[in-house]
Amino acid sequence: MFKKPFAWMSPAGRKARLSVLIFHRVLPQPDSLFPHEVDARRFDEICGWLKSWFNVLSLDEAAIRLKAGNLPSRAACITFDDGYADNYQVALPILQRHGLTSTFFVSTGFLDGGRMWNDSVIESIRLTPLPALHLDSVVGAGFADVAVKSTQDKQTAIGALIDRLKYEPVVERAALARRIAGKAEVQLPENLMMTSAEVKALRRSGMLIGAHTVSHPILARLDRPDATAEIAESKRVLESLLGERIGLFAYPNGKPQVDYSAENVDVVRELGFDAAVSTSWGSASVDTDSFQIPRFTPWDKSRLRFAGRLLGNLRRGTA
User: Fold this and answer.
1) Of all residues in the chain, what percent carry a pLDDT higher than 70?
2) What is the average per-residue pLDDT within 215-243?
3) Which one of 54, 82, 100, 136 has the lowest number of neighbouring Cβ atoms within 10 Å?
4) What local confidence, expressed as pLDDT, does residue 319 receive?
């Protein structure tokens, strides 16, 4: 039903358009705090659709063929950001069952028991036994009496706190998240991210691994030496771990001119990567900058709406 419109919108050759889908987590079960987060059942359904509608390629091959003008029709790639443990534990078996490949972009500073700052916030609010948190002394005015009793309270609190902390400097952001955990009186989980062994197993399974900085900073907020160090060190760590060259990079958060700058793109190119991906909506064409390949994933739950939004994204082209 959908192959023909996808083939019309994404033909083979020099007029090809590449769809790159982005995911972060695949939860074992639905999460009441994040009802729209992808879980195993839903990811299995999405993989079935993608297998049926697209020619799913590895991102390294797709980037080369896009520039060469010889992509197949209905070309698509699957990617994951950050390095969550459920990527290996939940997503990988589903991908294998469908015969699909994916690229996993890993922030190396969180391997082996690390935790991203936003997850510190999320789990603090999820796990706290308190009905309210008094956080004005931690994050400032407007957070004096944060209700965290109901699911809706928790969702509101998480959204507000993440918005408040997101663009703080890396060290300060992590420190604020730890202080929130202290106020919440919780013991935070230490198994949310992949281990080094799991990253190696992902690669052995045939999946690709890409770099995603060390500490997931907003690169546009860093000076050139610090941004370069974040990008280069993540590449070095992964190359040492896997014993191979790492050619793919994903910008943290990924919005052009907001989360990363033209200077950051130059750094990625100068460090010897082959291609990089953003989170700007759209599809890629032969004219797209290989170091700013857009990505998009529909949030719709029905097959018809999911396909329709992917077709709309193909029509959008490169943002």
Assistant:
1) 99
2) 97
3) 136
4) 44
**Residue 21 region, left (φ>0) first, then alpha (ψ -120 to 50), else beta?**
beta
Which of left, alpha, beta for 224 (phi over 0: left; psi -120 to 50: alpha)?
alpha
Within the chain, residue ranges assigned H as helices are 3-9, 40-53, 59-68, 85-86, 92-98, 117-127, 136-139, 151-165, 170-184, 196-204, 224-242, 262-270, 303-316
Residue 317: per-residue pLDDT:
62
CA distance 293 to 277: 5
The structural domains of the chain, ordered by start, are: 3-112+192-316 (3.20.20.370), 117-184 (no CATH)
Q: Which two three-digit tokens encode residue 276?
A: 């990089």
Q: In the prediction, which pLDDT does 316 show? A: 78
CB atoms within 10 A of CB 219: 25
Tokens matching residue 264: 């950051």
Considering the entire predicted model, what is its pTM?
Answer: 0.95
150 CB neighbour count, 10 Å cutoff: 10
